[in-house]
Amino acid sequence: MAILEVCTGSLQSVINAVEGGAQRIELCSALALDGLTPSVGLVRLVRERFPQLKIHVLIRPREGDFVYSHSELRQMAYDISAVLPYADGIVLGALTHQGDIDLMAMRALMAATEGKPVTFHRAFDVCRQPLVALEQVIQLGCKRLLTSGQAPTALQGTDMLRRLVDLAHERLIIMPGGGIGPANVHQILQLTAATEIHGSCSAGQGVTSTDIVRQTLAAL
After folding, report:
1. What is the pLDDT of residues 97-112, one digit of tens each?
2. Inter-CA distances, 35 with 60, 70, 204, Å
């Protein structure tokens, strides 16, 4: 069965996700801003309350683009170090002004993760050369790539997603994300041949719904 990763932006969303059957989450804050780094307190509390839950922590210091200054990259490295004891994986991404993977920045951030699995997030969806970027993400040693296939939603991006799955060829997990729900999750998995999928399972206002998590899992 495919794996559902639930994107959660608060403690209540985590509780709802677990009650719905989620076994892995992406933990962040400010979902209205497409997700920012959560507080260390929240990460630690979720780990204490749910010791068996797989927790992947988003590292994104601000809203807007994914082009980071030297100071912002230092902040991100500090954030990684702070959450690392409580995280099973780290979610991040950095680009150049030209819309390419920022390899120098990514290598520094990857080093800060101390070998824990890294997901390159949807910064990929604004890369100007997605197939080149795919190979770079693989070469960096990332475990997963979260993407909508450079489309507004994963359902609209299924052609690109399938191409990425085929090209990655087990070197990297391609994880569709964007507009995922009970009504389309099975179709997206079938069309893309993906084995993992990502969604907030929200019923509105950015709060994860226990029922929608349960329904999405049932539809896998």
Report:
1. 999 999 999 999 999 9
2. 7, 21, 15
